[in-house]
Amino acid sequence: MADMITRREALKRAAVMGAATVIMDSTLVEGASPPPSAPPNAATGPFVLPPLGYPHDALEPYIDAQTMQIHHGKHHAAYVANLNQAVARAPELAGKSVEELLRHLEAVPESVRQAVRNHGGGHYNHTLFWQLLRKQRDARPGKGPFREALRATFGKFEEFQQQFTAAALSVFGSGWAWLVLDGRQLKIETTPNQDTPLSQGRIPLLALDVWEHAYYLKYQNRRADYVAAFWNVINWEVVAERYAQFTA
Fold first, then answer.
1. Same domain, 72 and 156
2. What is the DSSP letter of 147?
3. pLDDT per residue as tens digits for the range 50-64
């Protein structure tokens, strides 16, 4: 019959279909390598992925190298790419920094506002986060105006540490814990998702990412262990410099 095929033809078709399925499925697997001509999350716009500034394993054993590779090179890069796509759809946003966009979300066209909020926040938050990390020389801030302000607001350093830790553990789902400047007053607060204190008129000084992608490879569901480890990799010099900059 005309609609019958031979066994050899059937096997050939099955092989072709199987190969196609493998190719299709590989594009759906998170982290699958795209063709060399299309690097993952390539930034094509005004915003670029900043360099990490130190080796991926620089924070071992507290934050592992694989997490840093994926967190910076995949997650942060995706926020940058998606932010570029959003602003490309709103030419009136050309030339604005991510800080300007986030401080004045009400001025961002409604058609891209949520995308700018999500991906602009992800870009800004992570850019700051990388700067705040290093293998510590000191476990707490050095002497100076920031340390005095911390003491005046919270009393002993351990009290600040306990309150910040409690805030980080209180975030339901994904979000961030922050030490911020509200005017000239230090405050601890949290935000959901990739929201940032900038959008509420406050200045972030210290940030802790408590999205699962920040810790799950090493700590699984043990967020408390990750938060405890964070105290070993804070770059207090940068925190103090930010305090001095925004209180000058």
1. no
2. H
3. 999 999 999 999 999
Q: DSSP labels for 98-164?
A: HHHHHHTGGGS-HHHHHHIIIIIHHHHHHHHHHHTB---S-SSPPSSHHHHHHHHHHSSHHHHHHHH
Over range 4-27, report the average pLDDT: 38
What are the residue ranges of helices labelled H in 72-120?
Answer: 77-88, 98-103, 110-115
Examine the domain organization and report whether 124 and 165 are in the same domain: no
Domain, as residue range, for 90:
65-131
Phi, then psi, of 188 in degrees rounded to 5: -105, 135
Is the Cβ–Cβ distance between 208 and 176 less than 8 Å? yes
Residue 103 · residue 128 · CB < 8 Å: no
Do 153 and 204 belong together in one domain?
yes
Partnered with residue 176 across adjacent β-strands are 191, 209
In a domain, residue 20? The reply is no
Domain count along the chain: 2
CA 182/CA 228 separation, integer angstroms:
26
Query: Is 44 a domain residue?
Result: no
Is 107 part of any domain?
yes
Burial zone of 35 (CB within 10 Å; 0-12 exposed, 13-18 middle, 19+ buried): exposed
Q: Is the domain of 159 the same as that of 205? A: yes
Phi, psi of 176 (to 5 degrees): -140, 150
pTM of the model: 0.83
Give the span between the Cα atoms of 220 and 214, in whole angstroms: 10
